[in-house]
ATP-binding cassette domain-containing protein (Alkalimonas delamerensis), 313 residues
Amino acid sequence: MQLHIEAVTKQYATVTAVNQVSFQIDSGEIFALLGPNGAGKSSIIRMLVGMTKPDSGEIRIHWQDKTFNEVPRRLLGYLPEDRGLYGDKSIEKNLLFLAQLHGMSKADALQEMEHWLQVFELSERRHEDLKQLSKGNQQKVQLIAAVLHKPALVILDEPFSGLDPINQEKVVEFLKQLKQNGMTVLLSAHQMAMVEKLADRMVLMAKGEVVLAGSLADIRQQAKPEQQILLRSETPLPIEWLQALPEVSSLEQQAPGQALIRLKAEAQVAPVLRQLLERIEPEQIAMQTPDLHQLYLQAMAKHQSRVKLEVVA
Ligand SMILES: Nc1ncnc2c1ncn2[C@@H]1O[C@H](COP(=O)(O)OP(=O)(O)OP(=O)(O)O)[C@@H](O)[C@H]1O
């Protein structure tokens, strides 16, 4: 299963939800769509599953030796943005119904269901009506429903939403299992820490456009992130002096004796370290690599200031 999204544009009335977006998802990858609210993630997903069509550009899905313009239903496991199962039916009845709709036999569905109910610790509750479950547990049932029929491609619109940190970790493990089982996974998410653990590649979108794309390492390179120095001392740090150093762009004081110092893009690290060591006796001094959350915030801030400049010009 390979997906090609080529120069796809989607307009709703006055809003360009997706603007000339291109990327490719390879077989067996976990691929993440990232971006703030309204970036266009769900619009792309809705076009992939055939709920809407692009205004221009092309979607091509290659499966074995065939090509499609939307993912065929029998190959697709989909967690929609608007969740929808039957509240007055039990977990088991809901899952059996959906598995059989996808052409699974009852025996196969029950066997597959057993595995996933155990993964999400819901085995004991299989006969409870869905409406009796917490929002998080309903979400877990929805995730099982998306994969029970062993689809080739799983598309999950915000699989982590509404889940506590422990259950978010469970979803990470669930997604890793899907990859091990050979499925291709596309997900949208706001939880950068989870995406960082999982995604082989990703695109960062803003206002319908791709801002950054690639693996985490690629994104780190493209983003040209600020260099960061973590400084820890047993005595309080001379914060004003640190802020006034010409190489420093900003400083985050994390405790009286601890700060994260961000350097200007063109700054050399060695002279900064020399000055620090002349003035301070640090307990710890370390270069820090920004995580996906920080890269995301930096990329979005840069994108916003570029858009503002374009508007002024
Ligand atoms: N059916 C629609 N009619 C009109 N505008 C729409 C429609 N669907 C989406 N939009 C607009 O398109 C833009 C992109 O929305 P979309 O739902 O794709 O973003 P998203 O990245 O999935 O956001 P979120 O993280 O909030 O789910 C938004 O400005 C949204 O208001």
